[in-house]
Request: fold
Amino acid sequence: MERHKTALILAPTLALFAATGCAGQARLTDAEKLARVEEMVEEVERRFPEVEAVTVEEVGRLLESGGVVLVDARAEREREISWIPGSITSEEYEEDPDRYADRTVVAYCTIGHRSSEYAKRQKEEGRPVLNLRGSLLSWAHAGAPLVGPDGPTNRLHVYGKTWDLAPERYETIW
Reply:
């Protein structure tokens, strides 16, 4: 009888756990995730008003014309999972920034905070660097491609649990 009573008490909790995942948070739809990304992006823009941002769509047009270089401002462990095709690391950019003087330089990270910091530092050194608005999370929500060590991928390093806002079709890692 006691075991049956415990099962009845735990059943709603177990159902909630199954519906929300291990973290205890309700699973968000892609639209809800995108709305949270937008809220976070707006906060980044408030913190870095001096940093000019470009949208995924604007970067797409620049990519078509060959007039852009994308700089991945994330840590190496994040870059090992996936990156935007054709992008370079911040270290590669800093080795010879003059090489990219004829192109628009756009930095990215997971959501845009670290790439805004990077763009701000570069601007202070006289190098105009823009920030990809919403960075990889906006890129993923726009359906733009990612590549990893073995070619096209749906794996995405999202820095941490707070930023686990990629569309459902992605395998997120942090």
Notes: The first helix runs from residue 2 to 20. Helices lie at 2-20, 30-47, 56-65, 76-79, 90-95, 113-124, 135-141. Confidence is low (pLDDT under 50) at residues 1-23. The longest strand covers residues 68-72.
